[in-house]
């Protein structure tokens, strides 16, 4: 019932998610947030292997009947149904979402076994890369502005926050 109601929510620039049966609404985000999502999406798509896809806000992850999460960006197998964890979830941090992204979403993504979680902060030109281990998320790196990092998760890619943010 809740999932159907969520599917019927208006497309008004807000993001609607359900966490433990409760509706979480995130207001429309500033232009820097959208630019960061698009910049990262373009960069990921250029390196993405053909068996995977990069999706921006259009696909939800439904780990339980009472939880529907909609990261800013995900990388998942083609044919993704939303039941199994995506390979990567990315949240672009803004002043209105910082606590939700850094605390709540991190705990949820960790609990539901998303292998990689990235936090992109356009205000500070910072990218935090977390990798799931048997004991929880471990921070692989925190990149600042012009710093570069190469990762193989979810596929080989080189990242530089300043380049992602244009």
Description of the structure:
The chain has 4 helices and 12 strands. Strands 3-6-7-8-9-10 form a 6-stranded mixed β-sheet, with helices on both faces. Strands 1-2 form a two-stranded antiparallel sheet. A two-stranded antiparallel sheet has the order 4-5. The relative contact order is 0.15. It is globular and about 40 Å long. It is 25% helix and 36% strand. By secondary structure, it is of the alpha+beta class.
Helix/strand layout:
Blueprint: H1 2-7, E1 15-19, E2 22-26, H2 31-47, E3 52-55, E4 61-64, E5 67-69, E6 73-77, E7 88-92, H3 98-111, E8 116-121, E9 126-133, E10 136-144, E11 149-151, E12 157-159, H4 161-164
Parallel strand pairs: 7-8
Antiparallel strand pairs: 1-2, 3-6, 4-5, 6-7, 8-9, 9-10, 11-12
């Amino acid at each position: 019932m809740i999932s159907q109601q969520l599917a019927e929510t208006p497309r008004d620039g807000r993001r609607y998610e359900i966490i433990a049966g409760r509706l979480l609404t995130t207001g429309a985000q500033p232009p820097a947030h959208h630019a960061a999502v698009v910049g990262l999406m373009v960069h990921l798509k250029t390196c993405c292997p053909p068996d995977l896809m990069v999706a921006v806000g259009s696909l939800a992850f439904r780990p339980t009947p009472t939880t529907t999460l909609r990261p800013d960006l995900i990388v998942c197998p083609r044919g993704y149904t939303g039941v199994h964890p995506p390979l990567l979830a990315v949240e672009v941090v803004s002043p209105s979402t910082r606590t939700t992204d850094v605390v709540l979403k991190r705990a949820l993504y960790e609990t539901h076994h998303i292998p990689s979680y990235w936090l992109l902060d356009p205000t500070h030109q910072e990218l935090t890369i977390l990798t799931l281990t048997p004991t929880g998320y471990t921070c692989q790196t925190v990149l600042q502005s012009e710093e570069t990092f190469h990762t193989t998760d979810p596929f080989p890619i080189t990242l530089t926050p300043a380049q992602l943010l244009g």
